[in-house]
Amino acid sequence: MTSTDSPDCLFCKIVAGEIPADVVASSDTAIAFRDIAPKAPVHVLVVPKEHYPDVPAFAATDAAGLASVIGLADGVASELADGQYRLVFNTGPKAGQSVFHVHAHLLAGGELPGFA
Ligand code: 5GP
Ligand code: ZN
């Protein structure tokens, strides 16, 4: 546990190995694992190992960590797809955020639907 771990947080438990996940990549500061309910041929969640509730909190405190999350996502997109991808940070319940440990949705593989 680190000072920013949140004991009831699903993604902190995945980071700690307490809940299994299909981990596809990791770095010193972040891990990438497949979403349990994929919305694209490649749908991977990239999360910092430290707990932050959302992306603005993460960026304000650890900009280098945010860059590391994006770098890990970029590498996974090249490994598992063709290096072209969409990164989504849902921020707030109205935007669809349901897990309050910051995570990038990496969506890739094939033609992604456009925004309406
Ligand atoms: P959000 O809705 O917060 O932007 O994204 C949370 C994501 O976590 C969802 O896409 C959901 O499918 C995924 N998810 C929820 N529970 C689990 C789980 O136990 N394991 C994995 N791998 N993904 C999960
Ligand atoms: Zn957490």
Architecture overview:
By secondary structure, the chain is α+β, with helices and mostly antiparallel strands. Helix content is 27%, strand content 22%. It has 3 helices and 5 strands, in the order αβββααββ. The protein has helices at 10-15, 55-61, 63-80, and strands spanning 23-26, 30-34, 42-48, 85-88, 104-108. Strands 1-2-3-5-4 form a 5-stranded antiparallel beta sheet, with helices on one face. It starts with 9 loop residues before the first helix and ends in an 8-residue tail after the last strand. Zinc ion binds at residues 6, 9, 11-12, 51, 101.
- Main β sheet profile: 5 strands, antiparallel
What is the residue-mean pLDDT, rounded to a whole number? Answer: 94
Number of helices: 3
* SSE string, helices as H and strands as E: HEEEHHEE
Bound molecules: guanosine-5'-monophosphate, zinc ion
Coarse morphology: globular
Strand order of the largest sheet: 1-2-3-5-4
Intertermini distance: 42 Å
Beta-strand percentage range: 15-25%
Low-pLDDT sequence parts: none
| Number of separate strands | 5
Radius of gyration: 13 Å
Structural category is alpha+beta
Helix proportion: 25-40%
